[in-house]
Amino acid sequence: IVVVAALFVTLLLGLMGLVVRRRLARADGGLIPDAGLSTRNVAELLVEMLAGLAEQNMGPHWRRYFPIIGSIFFFVLVANLVGLIPGIEGATRNANVTWAWAAISFIAHQYVGIREHGFSYVNHFLGPSLFDLHVGGKHIHVRALFPIYAPIELLSHFSRLFTLAVRLLANMFADHLVVTVWISLVAIGVPAIFMGLGVMVAFLQAYVFALLSMIYIGLALEEAH
Question: Global pTM?
């Protein structure tokens, strides 16, 4: 079931991408926005919002890593929204999906740190530099507190996996369960209220997941002090 749900979300994202691309390929070059509410307008609004957050949290290199953030956000958002449809199992209600995206986010920001700093990225786990030694004309940062900081930093980094996966899973499972219960109790009226709240929760959880991923990448880009 989870594979089918994930494939369904991927198909929806692909169709949305084709619609937006077709709009942008028009004779006017897509410069004129669509009238009223449209898939393109919503997509542009969300992308502009994400771009602003990415520049703020990831700095001048944000464009390089923005595609992974966009992929995470839109998959999680669409998967959350699909789960609100009665009779359809939401992909983010399954631990395999939330842990998979948490792993992707974790691997991404570790890769960014290694790519930007090379072997020096290990300094992020060794604590602050207390003093410098000058050996052969080189400055060596002495991180004397690394036996204390290393276990704490490693635990802190790996806890990011847990917080990303469990937060998304718990919130979406609870939200979809509430909607399902109310639909079974009262078929008309009341469930609409909770479905409206569910849309807000779906967007908020996608936003938080993407924002945390940006923050982690931003931290990986920083030089260790």
Answer: 0.79
